[in-house]
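Record type: monomer structure entry
Structure origin: computed from sequence
Chain ID: A
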Amino acid sequence: MIELRGVSKTVDSGGSPLTILHRLDLELPAGHSVAIVGPSGSGKSTLLGLMAGLDAPTTGEIVVDGTTITSLGEDALARLRGRVIGFVFQFFHLMPSLTAFENVLVPMELAGARDAAARATRLLKEVGLDARMHHYPSQLSGGEQQRVALARALANQPKVLLADEPTGNLDSNNGQHVIDMLYDDNRQRGTTLVLVTHDRELAARADLQILMRDGRVVERIDQSRVAAAQPVAAGGR
């Protein structure tokens, strides 16, 4: 579903090159949940932004759902993101001049969905905000804004859902609710979920953990295999 071939990212820093992401090859299987973990500055968010096509790599190719996104122009890339990729940002990135309902509605209208209004209403109900859907972001709490952002990310039923520290600015209750929804969507619809987090407990729920340090992938833990290898307790089935 997502494949990176020789991908790296280098930027200019005070006249000198700074490598944020060293050359890597990575393949993430369709329908799996993947947690990218590591300390601040390890390249996690950069990697996620490259997968989303929000930034371009310095070297290499990125393939998402069979399309080499690194060869697309801006218009084609925007269309693919609208059709295939949902993104949940740490800081919500809602449009302040639009209501919760309108924030969820816009991506569907841009995609030409015929049942956009009904689906926006249904999504906001699913995230527990049907009574707040005509409020503006400034009238919503952080947890409510993140749930609107999640509903927006799910609006076009994307095959790939990317989430960058989605609980970083939430209390434990709201954070747990958002994470439960992300993993529920992964299980129920077979969405490929890629989650950047500092929280090892949340990461432990994923099928695959990718540990990053200093712009490099230093470890991969296939937790689905680990779980399958666990011995059955006495008397258990």
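Annotation 1: Confidence is low (pLDDT under 50) at residues 232-237.
Annotation 2: The first helix runs from residue 44 to 51.
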